[in-house]
Specification:
Helix content is about 40%, strand content about 20%. It contains ten helices and ten strands. The structure holds S-adenosylmethionine (SAM). InterPro entries: SAM-dependent_MTases_sf, Tcm_partner. It comes from Thiogranum longum. This is Three-Cys-motif partner protein.
Length: about 290
């Protein structure tokens, strides 16, 4: 079964992930850790570009692998692989992939990622290290899940963050937000503070501009995309010991996702090395 999602940004994101997995498994393979690759929104392992939205930007016969296959094919690889997806229909293709790699230890689960990730983090002992890929479609991730990752102190995280959705849900002019979206935003951002934090006083027009003179003094406007990025990054930095400047993924020049890398290990040596490598990988993508 093929699984359809994404667009050209998908390829970019997966290239970055692949490079990091290669680095990580090479750097840590000969240490005494058990290395885990964890894909909490795993999909099926492959994609069908014929079905992909924005397919016109891709080569017609192009077919490329999803994160599951990419992780399994990375050398030297991980000691254990954990693939989780909520969609029951994706479990059979994942099990078929497992049969193709009989020499690898592959765990497959069908849970909400917000349950799966905390459970996984709780199993980690001092000899375990993990790379976790959180690749939701949209707003499925609960911020509280990230706090379990931080607490583990053993996980390097790659996180796809839906910045365009935040922009879409928060009217630019400060008009009332749909009540059902308020809950979603609070869950995604982990705080109700966004109601104030994502808005700023409206820029006053230059004096003499009569057209806007009826604006109330207290009118607000939503932060622009760059300011939204800064705010989300600041939030992540409150939880993680290291957060790299994210890679903005675009569709037709419109910002879509922020691709974040964060380290939960408090040991400065651990994240200094990761920082160097990640900066290098991301620089090549800009
Ligand atoms: C963007 S796709 C993942 C693509 C995959 N990482 C790849 O590169 O092939 C998002 C996946 O998340 C799954 N999903 C959606 N909500 C979920 C949830 N709450 N918990 C776990 N998986 C979920 C979907 O079924 C879908 O397969």
């Amino acid at each position: 079964m093929r699984h359809s999602f994404g667009g050209p940004w998908t390829r970019k994101k997966l290239e970055v992930l692949e490079k990091y997995l290669k680095f990580y498994s090479t750097a840590l393979r000969n240490k005494s850790f058990t290395l885990h690759y964890v894909d909490a929104f795993a999909g099926t392992g492959s994609q069908d570009p014929k079905e992909i939205e924005f397919q016109e930007q891709m080569l017609p016969s192009e077919d490329f692998q999803g994160s599951v296959r990419i992780a399994l094919d990375v050398n030297p690889g991980f000691h254990q692989y954990h693939f989780n997806d909520l969609n029951p229909e994706y479990i059979t293709p994942l099990k078929q992939i497992r049969e193709e790699y009989p020499h690898k230890t592959i765990h497959i689960t069908q849970k909400d990622a917000n349950i799966f990730v905390p459970e996984f983090c709780n199993t980690l002992s001092s000899t375990d290290r993990a790379v976790l890929f959180l690749d939701p479609y949209n707003t499925e991730l609960d911020w509280r899940t990230l706090q379990h990752v931080t607490k583990s102190q053993k996980v390097d995280l790659w996180l796809l963050f839906p910045i365009s959705v935040i922009a879409r849900m928060t009217p630019r002019d400060g008009a009332k937000i749909r009540p059902e979206w308020e809950k979603t935003l609070t869950r995604l951002l982990g705080t109700g503070d966004w109601k104030d934090a994502l808005y700023k006083p409206k820029q006053k027009p230059p004096t003499g501009d009569l057209f806007n003179s009826t604006d109330p003094d207290d009118a607000t406007e939503r932060l622009n995309i760059q300011e939204l990025e800064e705010w989300v990054t600041k939030r992540l930095k409150q939880s993680f010991n290291y957060v790299a400047k994210p890679l903005m993924l675009y569709n037709n020049n419109r910002p879509l996702f922020l691709f974040y890398f964060a380290v939960s290990n408090p040991n400065e040596k651990a994240w200094r090395l990761a920082d160097k490598v990640v900066q290098d990988i991301l620089k090549k993508q800009h």
